[in-house]
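Two entries, shown back to back:
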Amino acid sequence: MSREEAPGSALQRIAEVRRSIERLAQTRLESLPREFEFTEADFAAIRALVAERAGIALSPAKRDMVYVRLSRRLRALGLKRFADYLARVRSDERELEAFINALTTNLTYFFREPHHFEHLRTWLGQRPGTRLWSAGCASGEEAYSIAMTACEAWGRLDPPVEIFATDLDTQVLEEGRRGIYAAERLEAIDPGLRSRYFVPLADGRWQIRAELRALVRFDRLNFVENPWPVQGPFDAIFCRNVLIYFARHTQRMILERFVPLLQPGGYLYLGHSENLLYASEAFEPLGRTIYRRKADGELAAVSRERRIGSQPEAVARGESWLPSSSRAGGFTGTVGAEASSSKARVEPVRPGDPVILIGASTGGTEAIKTVLQALPADAPPVLIVQHMPEHFTASFAKRLDQVCALRVSEARDGEVLTRGRAWVAPGHSHLRLERQGNGYVLRLDRSEPVNRHRPSVDVLFFSAAEVLGPAAVAVLLTGMGRDGAQGLLALKEAGAHTIAQDEASAVIWGMPGEAVRLGAACEVLPLTEIGPAIVRAVSGRQAFCSRH
């Protein structure tokens, strides 16, 4: 049983809630009795307005939430229709602020994701004059957790640090400035910390000590407005469980604006469900959603690579993955600007030649792109299963083809495996590999789903274990569930080199986590290291894992 499916697990509860929300979203809400008139046009207008003014992306499943939260504003204003309320919001800046406050989610608690504060403490006491930013501070728990960590690191109530705390919601900022919290909000805090940094109030609540409140400066910040009310450089930025509320282009914009505000070598802390590997090359992942801002020299090198169109230095130019005696023509390792001419090359794969296999689900589209961009134009063939609905896989393959040196397309039944090609399983069919004569062909079929998926990663992996054996290099990336784990184990037992993405860099560690639990992975690696690991495995520069 995978971690997500363990009875009573947090991920299981999250999945149940998500399914409940999806069921509610499918209900014909117009047929239910409503206190206020609320049409599809009203909801669309609200989504557009909050995206424009705050960058927040509301999914269709949020319709009930929007109705409930904004209904309070209609009652307060004596309005009967959402159309009238929207007119008020557009003409009244104060009501616009209340509108945004109502739609902002503020879920936080003290020392959330404690490993971040453990990491902070390891270096904080060595840097006097440290400047720290809690971006998305909600009601202040994160900012005060930073302050307590600083006091502990320095052993005093007035450590040499500056802490800035910003949020979009003006109401929670006021709560943060007061620093008063109900007793239950402190239940998870160590009693020693509570006695050192909180003062009990007569009504049973607790208040942050005045010395700590003096360390934190609260201010409103809207990520889509300019300028931001903060000035760098900062030694660390906490922006945890904030980016998930924005569309991808807004996430990229925010991360790009973080770069000049963060000291080279400074740290960026993200939430457990967030990663920025798809959005920025300015940060080096350290694991557990901690990132280091690269030095200016490192960023300049990345910029030069981008200008000349080169890929990451996984394969040196002119370097061969396989001994020249193993096949005619050799493997040139061509990347970057020279890749376009290589895309037309057709070199059929023979028995014993390597084949690369990739399986992924949730979060996999960007993860697959990261891996493929590390491979040169004449790499061994790559077969990809990404859980994706029909009609979307063709466009996904087309996008990959535009940004990778390999030629990428949606798989078709009967195609012959050749070097320099990658195939994405179509959303309606399983993808299998079949031996034919002195080579291999792709086979598609619409048989029943496996592990609730069609295409299924296990179907591809099991077929490859039968016909490729030790010639396969297989990778299982981020995804929910167990699909691919048993197949990866079968490949390992057949002598293949197997790789699973690590938990810190995965959006969801279900599939690779299950593979690790089964002992199916020869290597467990961060996403950015998987491409180079494929190169090492194919070239033979790394010893393969033990055979069973």
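entry 2 starts here
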Amino acid sequence: MRRLLIATAAFLLLGATQATADTVVTDYQDPLQALPSVSRPATDSCTVTAMHHVFANSYGQPYVGTLTPPSSCAGDWTKVVLDWTASSAGRQYDRLAGIWIGGAEVARTSTPEPDPTGITWHFDKDITEFSPLLHQAQPFVVDLGNIVNDTYTGPYDVTVTITYFKADRHHPAPRQADKVLPLAADHNSPGWQALGDGQTYNAQVTVPGNTAKLTAEIYARGGGCEEFWWSNVPTSVSQGNPDAGLCGGGTYREVDVAVDGHPAGAVMPYPTIYTGGVAPMLWRPISAIDAIVTLPYTIDLSPFIGTLTDGKAHTITLTPPKGIVDVWTLGGNLFATTDPHTKRVTGELRTADVPEAQVHTDLTGTGIDVTATTTVDRSWHTEGVLHTSQGRITVKAGGQWTFANTTSLTDSAARQQTTHRVDGAYTANGRTDRFGFTLDADSTTAYTDSNNYRIDATVHMGRVLRTELGHGRLLAFSDDQIDTSGGFGRTNGQLTYADGQSSERWRGLDDTGRCLDRTLVTAHGWVTGDRTVNARCR
């Protein structure tokens, strides 16, 4: 029952009378985060409205249109920026959404939950890496499955614009991949797939013959019970206590990638929490890390280039985490950088050492009051040789991380505590992408029936990302930390508790290379402090 309460908490929060014992917040500030906005270069630019659409009863009914580049901004661009602005009022779930241009997934997000008076929120994203697709008219697809009825009354009114900034002498076009290969099968439909345990996402791609570098960009999110995978109990516990409403499958998750059936690498997902997760007031108005601006995961597939440049279609396979108890939604793209001085890059795959993860779980306690400690020490490595116009080149890719998660149920599962730590790095030919994920969650539920209950929770979540080139030269850095607490409850069907407080500190390099440090502080759904200072990033 506790898990059922968490999963449906978003439905129960709004539209009740004021109580006396606890604070009841039914109106909150527009959602925001401490992340820096995408910078806008001082060049000539053109903005196109790619979509203005209201998502109401929209499951299985994505928006499908055409994105045409503006003729007044033809030529090379120094930057292309996507802006998403949306509003909703009433009562509604948090919903998953994705955006595709020419079959390429360019953004993934999820929606904040509205209040009765309505909210508006915005995020932006640099999509310059998709420029090879953007010079021609392309299908433009947005999927945001939603339901509107007498109970769940909030449609999502969304506008997406694309701004093209022209390159000039002082703002040249960036060096980047010159071919985007979407993994979507149909460029006029949403390109993701919702997969259960044992299923795979198989995409057919034809790689340019002179490809000299190939990377995969992967999006991955769990749904249903898999929204809370970081706190799931071992399957033996969930199956042994079927009336407790627990989700099984344990707490370790990774997404695997294969090329023509050969394992090519794995990625470790971030423990994203939707804006209704754990307790909705935790995320009003500061949304959880990765909920609004969802980051993809990158694997370098260059060691496999020698087997892919024969002009034939090849299979890229994405496999959701093993042992999952609900679905994961997977998708992504390939980016090919070509060698202009040769018709074909040949080569050989020398090493593909991608073993299965060895997951170790120690379970203590009895019945439903248990503690599960899970650890994983993971590494994989691939290597190949390429014959390019510059001669023979050795290319390498790899990943390694340590994973530790302890999840405890006490008081007949009325209280659940999770401590989650991941530290690791992806490497590829002199580039190292380091990551550190932290999550601490503590929630207590006092439940009599659906009209009488109370949930209190505290959550700390953090994500540190650091990209280095060569001998430690810093290319990108961010450190995002959120602390939040709050809860909600009903007495005799009336909302008698709905409150929260939070803080977020984002420190890192923005896209101009400037180091910033911003702290937000909130109480009762409203910002009480917002401070930005210049900082030092190391």
